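Bench log, entry 3. Co-assembly request; chain sequences pasted below exactly as received.
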Amino acid sequence: MAETDWEARYGIGDMPWEKGEPSPGLVDFWALHPELPRATVLVPGCGTGHDARAWASAGFRATGTDIAPSAIRLAKQKTAKAGLQVEFRVGDFLADEPFRTFDWLFEHTLFCAIAPSRRDDYVRAAMRWLRPGGDFLAVHYLIADTDGPPFGTTRDEVWRRFSPHFDSLQEWVPRSYPNRTALELMLWWRSRPAP
Ligand SMILES: C[S@@+](CC[C@H](N)C(=O)[O-])C[C@H]1O[C@@H](n2cnc3c(N)ncnc32)[C@H](O)[C@@H]1O
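Structure output for the full assembly:
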């Protein structure tokens, strides 16, 4: 399977995932949880940064990374225009060693964007970038497609991959963009502290 050239897709504006707003499920999560302490968060595969800006608006010290330099350029422009503070960096979530670890990790359409053969790498990366005992909030896209990206997954696969390393705090079907209604599943996990 050929690797997706993400930079080329940004170059020609082939970005069907770009909705011009953050994940509705993420927005609702923070409206429901004003009590949670604000901390640091990593948004890998951040695209043009809508979700990272939503975390910053919720009071977090947010960092967004993306493998495509054009995504990071657009994210920085939009964030400056919005008058928000977010750190953006070009980087490969799967391959890079963490430049720091984070209190929270937010998944939204990166797991479904990478080749399914790299999903073990994704789980290892999630554990590397998150501090022990950190929180992993994920919006998974439950579609059947095998000729992605996006590549489909199932609730069973998500549980099989993440439950050995994370304790489940909550699972629910979120409010979604209109074309993803009832196709998303949110999971809030906490990584197990090192023994
Ligand atoms: C489907 S897009 C989603 C973008 C953003 N999360 C959103 O929902 O608008 C997937 C993003 O992941 C980025 N990406 C793909 N592989 C990556 C990797 N290994 N590390 C970091 N970013 C990656 C792509 O460049 C692209 O911006």
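The first strand starts at residue 40 and ends at 44. The mean pLDDT is 96.
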